[in-house]
Amino acid sequence: MTVADHLTLSELWRRVKKAKDPIERTRFLAVYHAKRGLTAKEIARITLNSSRWVQATVRRYHQEGPEALKDRRHHNPGQRPKLTPEEQARVLEALQGPPPDGGLWTGPKLRDWVERELGKKVSLYPIYRLLHEMGFSLRTPRPRHRRADMEAQEAFKKTSSPRSGGPGRRGGG
Question: Which pTM does this prediction carry?
Answer without folding.
Answer: 0.51
